[in-house]
Write a structure and sequence with these properties.
alpha/beta; 10 helices; eight-stranded parallel beta sheet
Length: 288
């Protein structure tokens, strides 16, 4: 998968879960989290997604401790949120805050430029031209190698493109949440990666009698792997970033990249997932 001037695999690693409850502080089992990070190179995972808001700062620090100097691994991070407490997310995308977020990430990750830096969410209180313009300045200064967006609509992609080359978009997307189908379509048109976060949030579809379980049992895989395989087949533009702080669960997730669903299995999961999505309704995207 081409991401700006990088080549990455389509199964990456989401590093939100290597933090504590409420995405605050260190993880409960820090040794397991470290072992999970250490296993990434041996499993061929070459893309990590994190944020300065995870911990805050904890995720970036742990990634550096485990993997620096990141040989063969692209590390993406994000900025735009303040974290006053567990499960509390305050948007602040004033230019000075964005510049400070990038500088802090450079220090914490131990790099001279960020492989991919994404705006975590657009701040409705700040003119978008100020937010996008600041990102463009940071790209031109050499602090950001590739820039992307997160939690956006199609029109935001086009607006941002006036200030910098949009290398990626990261939005929530999984079997029973298709809210951002229009964003995925726009990414396909533009030829940029759509990074699907929260890819394993399958809810009722992971039950004993669910379509995911039935397909998984037929193939000899897990329902979670079936959900990831469905996403990978859904569009060649999709990159999935399942997160975990358990090395065994990591290996299970990564193995999904080699699973190919039949057209019939893919369609069956898609039909049931679409029906479930309509029944549950659409919810506002959560921070990731």
């Amino acid at each position: 998968m081409r991401l700006g001037d990088l080549e990455i695999g389509r199964v990456g690693f989401g590093a939100m879960r290597i933090t504590g409850p409420g995405v605050m502080g260190p993880p409960p089992d820090i040794e397991a989290a470290r072992a999970t990070l250490a296993a990434l190179p041996e499993l061929g995972v070459d893309f990590i997604d994190t944020s300065n808001a995870y911990g805050p700062l904890v995720s970036e620090m742990m990634i550096r401790q485990a993997l620096h100097p990141y040989r063969g691994i692209a590390v993406a991070t994000k900025g735009g949120f303040l974290r006053p407490g567990p499960n509390q997310w305050l948007i602040d995308c004033r230019p000075e805050q964005l510049r400070g977020a990038v500088d802090n990430s450079l220090k914490l990750l131990g790099v001279e430029r960020v492989d991919l830096w994404q705006l975590h969410r657009i701040d409705p209180k700040v003119p978008v031209e100020d937010q996008f313009g600041t990102i463009g300045e940071l790209v031109r200064s050499g602090k950001i190698r590739n820039a992307g967006l997160s939690n956006v609509e199609p029109e935001h992609i086009d607006a941002a493109a006036k200030y910098f080359t949009v290398a990626s978009v990261q939005n929530r997307f999984h079997v029973i949440d298709r809210t951002f189908e229009p964003v995925l379509s726009r990414c396909e048109e533009l030829g940029i990666p759509f990074i699907a976060y929260f890819p394993l949030a399958t809810g009722a579809l992971a039950g004993a009698e669910s379509i995911l379980t039935r397909v998984a049992n037929d193939i000899g895989i897990t329902p979670g792997q079936a959900a990831l395989a469905w996403l990978l087949k859904r569009s060649p533009s999709i990159v999935v970033i399942p997160g975990t702080a358990n090395p065994d669960h990591l290996r299970e997730n990564v193995a999904a990249r080699d699973i190919v669903l039949t057209d019939e299995q893919f369609a069956a999961i898609g039909r049931v997932g679409e029906k479930a999505a309509k029944l549950r309704g659409t919810a506002a995207a959560k921070p990731t």
